[in-house]
Amino acid sequence: MNEENNEIQSKQENSNLSEDSKNNNNSQQEEVNTSNEEKQEINQYTESEDSYKSRYSIASLVVGIISILSSCRLFATILCAILAILFGITGIKSSKKGMSIAGIILGIIGIIIAIIINTWLSYVFTNYQSLYDYILYN
After folding, report:
1. Of 67, 97, 98, which Cα lies nearest the Cα of 80?
2. Most buried among 30, 38, 54, 121, using CB within 10 Å?
3. Quick one: pLDDT at residue 47?
4. Mean pLDDT calculated for residue range 19-24
5. Residue 10 has what pLDDT?
6. What is the rounded distance in angstroms from the CA atom of residue 41 to the CA atom of residue 82?
7. CA 56 remoteness from chain centre
8. Helices (H) and strands (E) in the chain, counts
9. Whether residue 97 has pLDDT greater than 60
10. Do the beta carbons of residue 77 and residue 114 sit within 8 Å?
11. What is the pTM of this model?
12. Which of 46-50, 113-117, 118-122 has the weakest average pLDDT?
């Protein structure tokens, strides 16, 4: 009888221990799940910040292209080039770093082209009455 009681007590102790270990495992899993949820929230924050800065990279590239295409218009080119440079500097910390650098370079090239074209046009119109005269006499 004592042996039976001992066996029953040992089985109960084993079941209690297994329940405790299950509870510990559950609490550990809850901690892991909580830490995973926190990591997901942090990742969502950094992803949204990165997408926010990548928009500046794309804007820098687009405005840089517009600054080159509008290089005959001095004020439009300078405005677009300055915006391209500012957007590029802002977006350079994003994942689309190449687009930011390209936008900055296109903005600088747009300013240089605008200065060259407008300097040449100033020379033509101060020395000749029209562009047609310049073509005829040169």
Report:
1. 67
2. 54
3. 57
4. 53
5. 60
6. 36
7. 7
8. 4, 0
9. yes
10. yes
11. 0.60
12. 46-50
Return the H-helix or E-strand segment holding 112: helix 97-127
| pLDDT reported for residue 84 | 93
In this structure, the number of other CB atoms found within 10 A of the CB of residue 96 comes to: 21
Q: Is there a contact between 68 and 117 (Cβ–Cβ < 8 Å)?
A: no
Q: Residue 71 — φ and ψ, nearest 5°?
A: -70, -10
Residue where the block lists tokens 């218009």: 73
Query: How high is the mean pLDDT of the chain?
Result: 75
φ, ψ of residue 58 to 5 degrees: the values are -65, -45
More confident position, 3 or 73:
73
Residue 64 has pLDDT above 90, yes or no: yes
**Residue 83 to residues 4, 75, 80, 102, 110, Cα–Cα distance (Å):** 87, 12, 5, 13, 12
Of 77, 51, 50, 74, residue with least CA distance to 64: 77
Structural domain range at position 129: 2-137
> How many domains are there within the chain?
1
In order of 19, 33, 93, 114, the CA distances from 42 in angstroms are: 34, 14, 18, 45
Which residues, 6+ apart, have CB-to-CB distance to 125 below 8 Å?
131
